[in-house]
Amino acid sequence: MDLIYEFFIHGEPEQIWNVIVSGQETKKVYFGSEIQSTFEIGSPVKYVGPGLDGPSTVHIHGKVLKYEPLKTFVHSYKGGNAYLGGDPRHKESRVSYTLDLIGSCTKLTLIHDHWSEGDPSYESTKKGWWMLLSSIKSLVETGKPLDFSLGLLHDYTE
User: Fold this and answer.
1) Where is the signal peptide (predicted)?
2) pTM of this prediction?
């Protein structure tokens, strides 16, 4: 049930790390949502952007569980009230990003685990990570994220 993705990206770990933890950069690949956190262990982490509650909709929230700059970022993950209509079956899970320099590339590994049985966001999240990670790869390698319209995202993740 764990979701595991490995991407090899032609870029330095610093470039990829910046896309993962910089609000201005996450906004480019996370469908307009920017990450907000102090990144101290135990501190809140939120992805905030346009959505059902206006321009400051909290799409995902959790707590920082591990943070080693340029190496590992782990946080708990739970959908905000606007995510899937605030379905109470959506439980907390965990997301881990790990970067490893491999030759002239950086390997980005994302593991999304600790899923609860019957979590209604599992299938859409499983599909959505491919889009997000592909956009991170494109942004680092070409300077441009992939252009996914919200209509396409909705159609793809339903």
Assistant:
1) none
2) 0.89
User: CA gyration radius for the chain?
Assistant: 15
Q: How many domains does the chain have?
A: 1
Query: In the Cβ-directed half-sphere of 64, how many Cα atoms lie within 13 Å?
Result: 18
Phi (first) and psi of residue 151, to 5 degrees: -65, -45
Residue by residue, pLDDT tens for the chain (158 residues) are: 899 999 999 999 999 999 999 999 999 999 889 999 999 999 999 999 988 778 888 989 999 999 999 999 999 999 877 665 566 666 899 999 999 999 999 999 999 999 998 888 888 889 999 999 999 999 999 999 998 765 555 554 44
Q: Could you tell me the residue range of the domain that residue 136 belongs to?
A: 3-157
Tell me the backbone φ, ψ of residue 22, rounded to 5 degrees. -95, 125
- Hey, how many other C-beta atoms are within 10 angstroms of the C-beta on 91? 17
